[in-house]
Amino acid sequence: MTADQIKQIISAGLPCEYITLEGDGRHWYATIVSPAFEGLRAIQRHQRVYGTLGSKMQSDEVHALSMKTFTPAEWAAQTAT
Question: Which fold has domain 3-79?
């Protein structure tokens, strides 16, 4: 899968204000900003993202996905420095 394909899948299943994805075709690194993360712990946020990928994770089309997840307010604070 390509970075654009994975971004499209995540964006289709989760409202994203910002998303970047880098990787080598099997191992991916994402930064995702979504209002859907409000009130969720990190593991719950990651589960939401994994849920959008569904069978892509299980079938090894996406072998590994490391991510940083932020709410819009957290992202604004992060980028203000």
Answer: GMP Synthetase; Chain A, domain 3 (3.30.300)
